Prior knowledge:
The complex is a heterotrimer of chains A (281), B (155) and C (792).
Chain A: E1 5-7, H1 12-21, E2 26-29, H2 35-40, E3 48-51, E4 61-64, E5 68-72, H3 77-82, H4 84-89, H5 91-98, H6 103-108, H7 111-116, H8 125-130, E6 134-138, E7 143-147, E8 152-154, E9 157-158, E10 165-171, E11 177-183, E12 194-203, E13 206-215, E14 222-223, H9 225-231, H10 238-250, H11 262-280
Parallel strand pairs in A: 1-3, 2-3
Antiparallel strand pairs in A: 4-5, 5-10, 6-7, 6-10, 8-9, 11-12, 12-13, 13-14
Chain B: E1 2-9, E2 12-19, H1 24-31, E3 50-53, E4 56-59, E5 72-74, H2 87-95, H3 104-117, H4 123-129, H5 141-153
Parallel strand pairs in B: 1-5
Antiparallel strand pairs in B: 1-2, 3-4, 3-5
Helix pairs in contact in B: 2-5
Chain C: H1 15-19, E1 35-41, E2 47-53, H2 55-59, E3 63-67, E4 89-90, E5 96-102, H3 105-112, E6 116-121, H4 128-132, E7 147-155, H5 158-163, E8 167-175, E9 178-179, E10 187-192, E11 198-202, H6 207-218, E12 225-229, H7 245-256, E13 260-263, H8 266-272, E14 275-276, E15 279-287, E16 293-305, H9 315-324, E17 330-339, H10 353-371, H11 375-382, E18 388-389, E19 395-396, H12 401-416, E20 425-426, E21 432-433, E22 441-442, E23 458-470, E24 482-488, E25 494-498, H13 507-519, E26 526-529, H14 547-574, E27 581-584, E28 587-590, E29 597-599, H15 600-609, E30 616-622, E31 642-654, E32 660-672, H16 677-696, E33 702-703, E34 706-707, E35 725-732, H17 753-765, H18 776-791
Parallel strand pairs in C: 1-13, 11-12, 16-17, 25-26, 32-35
Antiparallel strand pairs in C: 1-5, 2-4, 2-6, 3-5, 7-17, 8-15, 9-14, 10-11, 10-13, 15-16, 18-19, 20-21, 22-35, 23-31, 24-25, 24-30, 27-28, 28-29, 31-32, 33-34
Amino acid sequence: MNSFDHFTPATLTEALSILAERNGNASIIAGGTDLLLRVKNHIVKPAAVLNVKRVPELRALSFDSNEGLRVGALTTLRDLTRSPLIRDCYPVLASAAGLMASEQIRSLATLGGNLCNASPSADLAPPLIALDAVACLVSLSSERQIPLAEFFTGPGRSVLQKGELLKEIIVPPPQGKTAYLKHSPRAFMDIAIVGAAVRIQQQGGKCQQARIVLGAVAPTPLRVRSGEESLEGQTLTSEVIRQAAKISAESCSPISDVRSAAWYRKRMVEVLVRRGIEATL
Amino acid sequence: MKTLITLNINGDAREIYIDARRSLLDILRDELALMGAHRGCDSGDCGACTVIVNGQPVTSCMMLAADWNGAEILTVEGMAKDGQLHPIQRALVEKGGIQCGFCTPGFVMNIKALLDENPKPTEAEARAWLAGNLCRCTGYAKIIEAVMSVAEESA
Amino acid sequence: MTDALIGQRVPKLDAPSKAAGKTIYGHDVRLPSMLHGRILYSRYAHAKIIRMDTSRAEKLRGVKCVLTPKDNPPHRFGYGKDNKPFKDIARSLRDEIAGVVATDADIAEEALSLIEVDYELLPNIFSPREALSEGALLIHPEHKSNLFQRYNYSHGDLAQGESESAVVVEEKFLLPYVSHVCMETSVVVAQFDHRDHLTLWSTTQIPFLLQRDLSEALGIPGSNVRIIQTAVGGAFGRGLDIYPYEPIAALMSRKTGQPVRVAFSREEEFLAGPARQPAEVTVRAGAKADGTLTFRDASCMLDIGAYVSWGTVTPLVMMETTASLYQVPHARFTADCVYTNNLITGAMRGYGNPQSTFFIETLMDRLAEALKMDPVNFRIMNANVPNSETPQGLVITSCGLKECLEAVAASADSARMNVYPERSRRNEGGRLVLSEVEGMTVTANIKPSPFNLQPPHIKRGIGFASTLNVGGGARIYRSDGCGATVKVDDFGHVTLVTGSTEIGQGSETALAQIVAQTLGVKIENITVLNSDTDIKPWDVGVHASRTTFIAGNAAYLAAVDARNQIFETAAQLLGVGVDQLSASAGQVTVRDEAGKSISLEQVARRRHFKEGGKVILGEGWYDPPTQLVDKDTYKGNISAAYGFGAQMAEVEVDIETGKVRVLRLACANDVGHAINPMAVEGQIEGGAQMGLGYALTEELIVKDGKVLNPDLLDYRLFTSADMPIIETRIIETDDPGGPFGAKGVGEMGGTPTAAAIANAIYDAVGVRMTQLPMTPERVLAALDEKEKRARV
Lengths: 281, 155, 792
């Protein structure tokens, strides 16, 4: 591991100032479970590491029935699985977090880290995007909000600019039911071969709004609008569901890697989307 | 760059100058000679380095020690009291949950964390909680049996 | 006997220290002035090193020295004498080409990146077929062929067997690279003293062979090499060879004059450690209409990688399964062990048996199906029997194969009835037992939902497989012996010094039980020393499930010798004949004369303090009455006893995803006599974890000689959450040659697992899986294939 400077700012302003001074050449560490792996494997050689764990502004966790959920970047996966607020209002987030890694890693790893690491297979991204979550990004000079669906730009890449931090995620009040299905060989300790989040809002026996978001099948989490459209306005018969699942599979072109062949990922998209929709009924 | 930090380990405050690169596991093993936490993978996948920090089980290999100034840390060395093994340790011994023993300290600590939060877990809960601790010798059977026996005793 | 220790669930003697985190493993060894060595591996799988510039690395602060091929002693080492510490021609990506010694491992690591190397690339050979093709480049030119060894075995008359067959089945199998994945990575600490004596702190399983190997590799007398085994954090066959990092650490210590530690990272463990040989296998087998087996014919191609190890001998075991598991009148087995530019391979738990049991037991299932016979009855009617000799020359003494099959069949019945174990009942020992099946010990109570509540895409199936494994040593070296001494001190405390090693399996405790039982002392009064070649007598090593049988017999003989010495003195002191004495509860007592006794301690003191005194020191050497197999026919009785086992797997297959979930694995094993049932169960349960991984999730994915998944995230071991219910049943047959009737059990737990699961998958969904691991992707592809065939 290369040597680096280490900072532990106590406020958001302090953190952003260091980030600005370092002109982007600082790695932000929250849980550290992704960053340390990359540093140990010489993928990242940071000149400075910025420990943001003491920044209180990143620790939001509140719910308002109009605005929805504000959940700070430092919220750990463990917090997500334990928080009564999340378990009650957004159970899909608690269950998605609970499938990730291990109890020990979940105690360290954070929501912000999972998103900013921008892995195509990040388990929290599909359900959050399905919930129409918005990312709040801050820098010394500005604060902006961007739909999480637009946050990711490629594997390991996001819209975060130099000097900018992910402060929190805002999730609108839950509409309909959301499910996240993860396909992996083991029960825990696995990266998803495919992840599929589905949100279905029904009214009068018809699907009013649908979200289908896939993980691990594209460079970024993939929202399948054509699949969603095939559901909206329809009565969700098994034929309609099958059709949406098929469209979802056809609309992605995953890669083959050590975890799975591309054809298998496509097949799993179809199965998971179908089962995901069924799980919301 | 070396920084001075304080770690409260097994009830003792330890002040240490550390290199910012060092993981908590490095510090425990190399600076403090607490070698019960084992380095099985150094990437958070095996659980052999599990310790309890601020009440939560963590893989100490995946933590920069510098990030944890002031933390309360419990390691396997802090489990026995007055020369007597902790009931979890005793159960692992008596039920046959230890073979090569390399994974054992990590299991001891994660089982402690489990039973602190959920003193009467179902077997399925225990198995899920311990999924981050790999064992290559026992097939986990007798480890789980030990967990269930401690849970039963504490009832 | 009064204080019976044999058959007791004695907790491991080394467990309390391990639970407390106080045990010293190789990674915990710290010596004054200890330095750290790191190894530079080749960038290319096959290349000549034409220039190496180490000057920048040497200048790095903290670097003590850099070693290159120039530092090699002139000798080659390894099973095939084809290896050197550092290579000037790299034959695989794991080839060591240089090493750095520094004050800390990070500096050494950084220095590696400063070594400049120019390579001249040579053609790569990544497949055994290509390696054997005409004109293929020789990987070791001095060997004249890329075929290192061909095994060619037969008995009976294959043509006759085939002509007698009512059914014949044939299948091709593909077996993957898998890794031991010891939780502790490889580590060694080497220290040369001023007399040029080397001390090596090592995780080896073969201290005395390593002592010899190292003396050859380094060109120093064996008497100058001392091996101290630290607590071993898992072995499973990994420690059955010399590896280059060991002489490298020694060379590093010699060059710096300081102790040097070389510790592998997990990634390095996957890249540079040994793996189980991948193999391509074609098997044919036949049976008569009444179910009698007629013949088997298996041919294997093994990729042994760039260097030969003891793992190259694994075809001997594959051959044994092919020729002698069940009664097979006609059999042929061939295996080619081929050099390639791939990973090195080595010995791994089961030593060929998990591979061969997978293909043989899959074919057994196909035969039963073709004959429309019950798979268990078919196996039982062909099973090996006690007091028989197989055509291969295996002399089977005790044999409980039939009983094992019957036991797992009982579990299958409860599985078919959808009955799952309850934790409601306990036996006298407080063990939880399965209420439905007598004697089964159950380890989980995750209850699957009843069959009729399963969604339509979930299919259930049940499968069986058996195993035959050496259980009384395995003579693959001139001696299969082990020495032991038993000393009694003047506190009545007993020290067993055994040649054999504790590697986590519990041998220390089992041997202590044997000695304690024989001398009539409490287990607490026994100390076992087993880790220092300067102290302990010779032993060939911990392998082949041999320790309980071989080291157990040696310990027993030493204890009997000590007891004779005790009785000799006690008889004089008590004024009775030696034949009137017995030992129990730390006392020597006169039979039939109540109250007349003397303590062990008193006997020892009297023996020590009298004029012309003597030590109570018993000696035992046990080398089983077995043979090295004939070098041409491969026939002969390799082991003094054979262990048997059977497993039943109940699985669920998701036909939409191909994912297989094992719900229950019932394991019955004939272990002769269980010295320590808890330890026996532990071996079976742990073996099952490896067998489950081999069956379903574990594979080193290797492309162009490179491991693509060298971490524990993508090399998937079963976790506690993935494990099925495991039922274990110990079958006791009391082997006449074993200590207290015991036979070995160390490797059998995982041997039949893959076949049992494959057969269960077939039962569930009608596809034969012939490639391991049976990943969801492969199962789904097989289901697709089946559907395609059905449509045609």
